[in-house]
Amino acid sequence: MTESDTEATRQFAIGQRWLSETEPELGLGIVQRLGNRQVVVVFPSCGDIRTYAASSAPLHRIQLARGDPLETAHGLTTTIRDVRCDANGLLTYVTDDGRIPEQQLADHVAVSGPLDRLLQGRVDECATFSLRLRARRRLQRLQMSDARGFAGGRMALIPHQLYVASEVARRTVPRVLLADEVGLGKTIEASLIAHRLLVSGQISRVLFLVPEALVHQWFVELLRRFNITPAIYDHERCNDTSPPQEESNPFLNEQIILCPMELLAERFDYAQQAAEAGWDLVVIDEAHHLAWSPEDISPEYIVAEGLSRRTRGLLLLTATPEEIGPENHFARLRLLDPDRYWELAEYLKESVRYQAFCPIAERLAEGIELTAHDQSLLTGLGISINAPPHDQLRALLDRYGPGRAVFRNTRRRMRNFPKRHAHLYPLSPGEKVTWLADFLRARNREKVLLICHTKRQVTRVAEELATCLNVKTALFHENLTLIQRDRNAAWFSEPDGAQILLASEIGGEGRNFQFAHHLILFDLPDNPEVLEQRIGRLDRIGQTHDIHIHVPFEEGTPDAVLAQWYHQALNALEEPLHGAHAIYERFRDRLRSAETLLGTPEWDALARESKASKEAMEDQLRHGQDRLLELQSWDSDVAGGLANTIQAADRDRDLEQAVLELCDHFGVHVDDAAPRTYTLHPEHLFTDAFPVLTSDGLTATFDREKALGREEIEFLTWDHPMVTGAIELLLSSHDGTAAMGFWPTDTRKMLLLEVIFVLEASEAQNGHAHRFLPATPIRVAVDHDGRDVTGELVGAGFEEQLKEGRKHPVLNRREATRELVPIMLDAAEKIAQRISAPALTEALERLHTETDTEVERLEALRRINGHVPRAETDEWRERAVEIATTIEKAQLRLDAVRLIWCGPEG
After folding, report:
1. Which one of 111, 286, 288, 751 is least enclosed by Cβ atoms within 10 Å?
2. Is the domain 159-338 a CATH 3.40.50.300 member?
3. What is the pTM of this model?
4. Quick one: CATH architecture of 414-620?
């Protein structure tokens, strides 16, 4: 088929076949009526009728040519031998099966590829061809970018979070315990890891298991920060998707699922289905609830164990890894790597051995000159003393550190973290609520979080407070539904919302209230790790002010003892308490009988022993496993490099230009709202498939700082689904796949064919190949003799000089172009094949360099301390073989063609 927009072919006649340029899905139309400068066209395939202005109708004349296949409305398929045109402009096709008037053509038109579209005359503007080429090149850069999957998070670029995420995401089998202190961002780390792996195509199925009280918070964080929209599963969802009479698995119906751990712990049939569904990554929050002992295994641990055996990636999150003791910590490590952590006694011995290396690591980290003994020890360990200190430290930690399964960062390495100030209020019996009312009156514009043990206490405090003070009060306890809790928490966060949130103990775990700066501990937990969880609701990343911790207590009560013990002996209110579980276990029994000891020599002795125990524990951790964990959980050079890469992506003005171009192409109206900030309106949108944009429109910014301060504004990055989706929408369409151009020049006459091929590996075969061989556009131009003239189409204002060629008579010489263009295309493909060979070689070299480097490092680890199972190095080798096979099978695919006439105007 060919189409033409010449003036001759735009003379309509009743019975002619035309194709709608704007609605090709209507099929071939037949001119039904003419008059009043209008043309009426009926489309038999759908029964629709359209009326157009004859002078500007968006229609293409369908004219088949000699040699074309022809299909009639009755299903006859034949080949055209000749074409006749009568005086009225109606065509008759001469075939071996007789003469066929154009009215008898099938009502559909098959347009398969760029060449067909070009030869059929179904061409777009040159600007659309160029837009498609730019989109191809942008996608190529995106697929190779080191920032891919990291830049898209609506988050501050905090070094330790970036390092942990990058280190875990690069592993072939990411199975780690994220154990940063409370408030340092484990949720963000886990989400960022999942986002990186999802966006880069390395995983597709993810299960998030979290406490029921945190389901909505996780959903909001995943959606708001990372544009991940998980399906929330509960009893109703499982029952709806898996009726008893059907043998279906509800966990196979969604790719990304957010599920309360309680659901699976209570229903082992659901747990079995979840395990059988198969996941690329499982994320389990508050993993300290996975209790285990030889005598008693919790349902939560059983659920986690079943999933761990069937999933490749596993992330466990807990701020208190040893809260329930070393046995439970070891049991969680065994979930991650049962081959490595197989014997508790051996694990405990190993923990002691780490202390020998800590002083050297400490000196290397602090830039302190090593002693001769240090240098001798490093030499004996096979580490060059001539290497830079940073390299020596990485080698020491990599080969002799406490393992690769745990990441733990502490505030000790953080800069500018807010301080904690403790305020103790000894009161007479029955004065607490009165004190609270006075406290709120004095701070009537400040947000206050109050935590106590039980919902009964919450209710009682709320009732008594209401009798003596008119204050906006929100409640947060386990008897409220999740929706009620979320609404109350949201109301508390609003500037004009509740001044105080009264929370039971569930408010002390997982929830974030860093917009408040006052915490009231209305009673005290006897476990110092629970105390740290409470304080962590305010003392966390994102907190912009110092935190004031208020402890009202009645004299002569257990809380009076705990208040003095926490503050005077342990300083646990103003500084994080390390080794809290061991300290608690040692002094628990004596504390329970200490109510009458305050002010006595016995109390002084208890306080001194507690303080000494705390200092000894901190010294042990500072020079042992925790310190080594801390050193290997944050590499400032790696984190800084990634942060710089992300910042460069943030500053990339080509992203902004790309979005504006795509919006213009698809009919999205854009208004400036502020620097690098725009409002997008869909009123004139050409397609319902445009991603993310709703009928209400949206405001979007390319500025990270603005996005962090304005949650209602979309943060657009190369990772954002609107950006990637719009690029994919363009590249998956026919838009820009065929064009005709006229290059005016008085020096020569020449027919050119500009061809865009794409060299690509099959993602269906291997999802990792694009990192090494992205979909690579190869641009080639040949003249009518098949000579390579690509260089002549680059620079010198070529695009600016090029004019639309759809109406140029030379380009509409259908017989000539139908014979010549396929020959020119064959010549272009041979040139592209030569160009693609080095690209394949470079991709394989990048793959083998990365694989060899990582395998060598892992083999060194495994030879020396056994921290790396052989399976991990085997995984790297097997993956490299699979990716190499996929790259070697990469093929050129024709993506777009542009036919250009080069000659004088007129």
Report:
1. 111
2. no
3. 0.80
4. 3-Layer(aba) Sandwich (3.40)
